[in-house]
Amino acid sequence: MARWDLRQRLVMLVMLFTFALGMLAMLHGAPVSGASAVYTADFTALLITIGLLIMIFMGAYLFPKWFGADPLLMTMMNFLCALGVLVQYSISRSGGLYHALWYAIGSILMVVASLAVRRVKTLRRWWPHLAVLAAVLLIAPLFNTVNGAHAHIPIQRVTDAVTGRSMITLSIQPSEGVKILLIVLLADMLSGHSWRPDSVWAMGVAAMCVGLLIAEDDLGTCVLYAMTALLMFFAATGSFTLLFTGVAGGAGSAWLVYQNTGKFRTRVEQWLNPFMRVMDDKGGVGLKGYQIAESLMALAAGGVHGLGYGIRDTFRWVPEYSNDFVFSVVCSQFGAVFALAVLAVYVVILFRGMRIAQRARRRFHALLAIGVTALIGFQTFVIVGGVVNMFPLTGVTMPFISQGGSSMLSCMALMGVLNGVYACADQDERDARAILGQYSAMRSTFIWTTREVGG
Amino acid sequence: MTKSVYDALSLSLSYLFMALGVAIVLCGAAWARADRRARKAAAEPGAEAVGYLKLTGGTSKRVSPKQRFPVPVEGTVGSARACDVYIPSAEIPGKAGRFTLTQAGMLLSPVVGGSVSVNGMAYRVPVLLDEDSRVEWGSLSFQLNLLDGARDLAAARITPPLSDGSTVEEEPPARWSSRLRRGLPLGAVESDEPTEADDSDGTDGTDETDETDYPVDTDDSDELTESAATDAE
After folding, report:
1. Mean pLDDT estimate for chain B
2. Model confidence band, residue A120 (pLDDT cutoffs 50, 70, 90)
3. Bridge-partner residues for A278, per DSSP?
4. Residue of B nearest to A192 (CA)
């Protein structure tokens, strides 16, 4: 039997992981009644698993062939998506099905984004339109409050039959889409040279987005935007002065927000003292940082190897465990070693993204790849750091794993952009090699002629 | 399946998932590393640096003093990212020239219509850079340093195979040799047209060259004819 190459080995490992987890999900099914119930086989899980295996195969072999995508990037991304779908399925069946649906739609969006990057040369004449679109998308949610923030636009409301309260069951988060717009705009504006009017435009757009996000009270996304924009400015100009000025400005703004926003101050206090006992509104005693404390306990319960897929005993008290705290669920079910491996997969994706940025032969593409990589990296860093109480928790999602259609679609579109840059870099490299080949042949002819003719 | 059996199965499989997670990371990292090496090796035979250009005079915002720019066996030099030797300075045109390693030294060909200053003399034709030659663009001055064995590499590469698999020891395409026998300078085979970037307006023109695609399927004979006509004038 022929020795398998690295691609085949990696794809087989990812498929084996998905298959084993999918079989477990099928066996887990749902308890018929009570805690000691007999589990029934769930064939929906089997169908989802087959779909995931097909997506992994397509990502590793067919997408690179058809659209020039990076097979390594696709395989790693599909591993995270498969993990996300099955983890969400273990939390709730409907959540898993929705996640699988967004994953399928996101794959189409990824292909569209990849092809768009290959075609677009410049967006200069669209700058005002795109900037206005970003502003409108960020202003729209200001008039709605969902989960204490003005970051969502509610689509579907359901009235609870028991309490009579209206609950939002479906909403979209426009800031997830504006992420892509911001990166594309900044990459195009900064692909000229530094300190020209284009850079002022870029600064204006970035400042507008960050300002609107502060108004929305969506501090997590605001931090992501600010850090990504700063890194893109630094990559474009190479100016340490600008970098330090931006960092100092960000620190100053954070201090101002801390002084003037109760929500942010509470987050910092929870971060510093998550286990401090406080009196709640009803006179009971609770933990000051209830969310973080429960998350840390779930992490600890998971231990090194985890409690097993589908075991909900430890994370069921963690609030928002399907989106913000999904990393706690992964740690609880699969253990610390696997959680570190998941983080390492993100690191591989980031390194791959930076490599693609280095290989890009056009400034616009290089900045696009840097922006996308930075955004995904910062997003993972911010949410994982918040969950393990490394710094104050901000409500952002974990790419590809957290529940949330807007987040999933934006992450998939960002990966499409990265794949598009990869395909362009590949094409440029082939072209450059062809040119050098022609030139080499001409030079050899010249040398031959001078030798033969004596010229 | 009862809950207790499922719990036991799930717990035991968690070891498998742990092992698979670690294996996936290691395999992914190995693939990334192997891919990087394969690309480096396949980029172009002899694409590794054979010397370097060192900034010896002048200052630029994005080039630090005494910064070294690795120079491969052949390629392009300029301030456009697409260049093989990419010097991010506004003093340098987007595509300043093309260089090739020969046994005698590094042959630097300015773009058609452009010029290059070597050791204080301006040239519009290909010029041979010797060890420690000083190349100037604007106020920036660079010194070429060839690594040991670079000329041996050039000697080994003197008869590379042509794209059709033949070597130059065989009869070369007639349309090239006939023009070259007429004594056209090597610069005449350049296919690059001068861009706005080459104007000495103080800008480096990376904007323009960055958006320029490489001409791949150009008709060599037409290019040579046009270049020859230009030179004849």
Report:
1. 68
2. confident
3. A286
4. B207
Q: Where are the domains of chain B?
A: 46-162+204-211
Tell whether domain B46-162+204-211 is in CATH 2.60.200.20. yes
Whether this model's pTM surpasses 0.80: no
- Give A296-329 pLDDT, tens digit per residue: 888 888 889 888 888 877 777 777 788 888 999 9
Contact list, A355 vs chain B (CB under 8 Å): 32, 36
CA distance A300 to chain B (A): 16
pLDDT in tens, B10-28: 888 889 999 999 999 999 9
pLDDT band at B61 (very low <50, low <70, confident <90, very high): confident
Length reported for chain A: 455
State whether residue B192 sits within 8 Å of chain A by CB.
no
Across the beta sheet with B116-118, what order do the strands follow? Answer: B68-71, B51-57, B140-146, B134-137, B116-118, B121-123
Cβ-defined contact of B11 to A307 (cutoff 8 Å)? yes
Length of chain B: 233
Contact assignment for A308 to B169 by CB distance below 8 Å: no
How far is residue B103 from each of residues A229, A439, B34, measured CA to CA in Å? 48, 17, 33
Residue of A nearest to B42 (CA): A433
ipTM of the complex: 0.84
CB pairs under 8 A between A and B: 203
In the predicted structure, residue B70 carries a pLDDT above the cut 90? no
Secondary element (H or E) of residue A184 = helix A174-189
Closest-CA distance of chain B to residue A444, Å: 6
Chain-chain contact of B10 with A17 (C-beta, under 8 angstroms) = no
Q: Do B29 and A348 touch (CB under 8 A)?
A: yes
